[in-house]
Amino acid sequence: MSTQLRAITLTHVRYQTGDHIGHFLAWISLIPVFISLGGFVSHFIFRRELQGIFFAFGLLIAQFISDSIKLFVQQARPDTCIMLEMCDSHGWPSSHSNYMFFFATYFTLLTYARYDMILKRQMSFACFVVWPLAVLTMWSRVYLGYHTVGQVCAGASLGMFLGLVWFWVVNAKIKKRFLAIEESSIGRWFYIKDTSHIPNLLEFEYENARAARRHPSYKRSE
């Protein structure tokens, strides 16, 4: 029986002591974790939108494909992996880059297609945040010594490609079944819904929340 120990690397990011840029990029490198736990988990708990659910499902598929390619190619990480204790895993393609560029691609397409989940101006501004974060995450993996330039570029290319393909699959094929999912027993049990047909969702929810407050049947008993 082997006594070799392994660490859970979900938030196990190392940087050189005193390196302020490395410290900043170490936090940047954790953005996929924040998006997954803080973003999509919160989205399912409070929103349960089918677009968001399939967005998250696509990220899981992309991660599975990236990990499968790593096992097949088995390209080693750079020599700095010895200091980072990351030599027991493969480096091509970078899963962080794959994740962030999938997210940025799908998010951008979702913004400019026709889904006014937030006002267009606000969504356009958000896109100018998402892409720089994707690039910073890619750079952080090289700067911190976890990947080579080629490995992060491969991850980014894979993420953009999978993001494009998955967006087409969801909105050209699966979206036709959104109503059936919404009306299914599971959909009704978990309050899963599709609001992509509503032009301005913020205004719709705001007006309906105000109307419900004035309606006696919606008032809570104190």
What would your notes on this structure say?
The protein has 222 residues and is mainly alpha-helical. It is 65% helix and 0% strand. It has helices at residues 20-28, 31-46, 50-73, 81-84, 95-112, 120-143, 149-172, 178-183, 185-190, 201-214. The longest helix has 24 residues, at 50-73. It starts with 19 loop residues before the first helix and ends in an 8-residue tail after the last helix.
Secondary-structure element pattern, one letter each: HHHHHHHHHH
Cα distance, first to last residue? Answer: 61 Å
Q: How large a portion of the residues is in β-strands, by DSSP E?
A: under 5%
Number of strands: 0
| Overall body shape | elongated
Q: What is the gyration radius calculated from CA atoms?
A: 21 Å
Q: What's the number of helices?
A: 10
- Range of helix content: 55-70%
Largest sheet: none
Residue runs with pLDDT of under 50 for 5 or more positions = none
Report the average pLDDT across residues. 81
Secondary-structure content class = mainly alpha
Task: Report a brief summary of the structure.
The protein has helices spanning 20-28, 31-46, 50-73, 81-84, 95-112, 120-143, 149-172, 178-183, 185-190, 201-214.
